[in-house]
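Researcher: Quick test of sequence recovery. Tokens follow.
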């Protein structure tokens, strides 16, 4: 099963992001916009794993989460990866809580490396809102002003991702509470 660890986004914040997406979608650029229900902040993409590996990793993930306290996140600003000259991903930035997200992601990287997962070099906290299918200019999108209300992060979620022709379906398999 295809999996990842992420922070869930409250519905009220997803609504604000979705409003932005709906405005941009009207421009009919070659961008696959993320569905309302799929908006999240990925901490670690695990890829394909066996069901029994999930249960083996669960104590390690829970242990990482217990080392970290609840914190607040506020989303603000827009950007793209890898850069505006060759955009592939459009994202919303993290204004508050980025340091905490980076620390948790680094701890997860270290713990999960023991299970054979490749350690990523750098984590950039963001929320993906669109994937660019073929080259297009996103300068207009990047100049937009965006900010959300702050929200509390209480847990990390283990998601299963099922790929479908009309986009992925995410299923929450487990939640790990922060201290």
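Model:
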């Amino acid at each position: 099963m295809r999996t990842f660890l992420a922070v869930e986004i409250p519905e009220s914040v997803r609504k604000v992001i979705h409003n932005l997406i709906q405005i941009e979608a009207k421009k009919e650029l070659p961008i696959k916009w993320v569905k309302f229900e799929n908006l999240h902040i990925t901490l670690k993409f695990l890829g394909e794993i066996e069901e029994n590996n999930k249960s083996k990793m669960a104590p390690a993930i829970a242990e990482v989460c217990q080392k970290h306290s609840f914190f607040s996140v506020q989303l603000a600003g827009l950007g793209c990866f890898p850069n505006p000259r060759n955009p592939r991903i459009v994202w919303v930035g993290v204004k508050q809580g980025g340091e905490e997200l980076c620390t948790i992601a680094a701890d997860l990287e270290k713990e999960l490396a023991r299970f054979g997962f490749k350690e990523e070099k750098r984590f950039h906290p963001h929320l993906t809102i669109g994937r660019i299918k073929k080259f297009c200019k996103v300068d207009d999108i990047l100049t937009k002003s965006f900010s959300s209300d702050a929200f509390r992060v209480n847990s990390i979620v283990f998601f299963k991702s099922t790929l479908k022709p009309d986009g992925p379906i995410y299923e929450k398999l487990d939640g790990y509470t922060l201290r």
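Residues 51-66 form the longest helix (16 residues).
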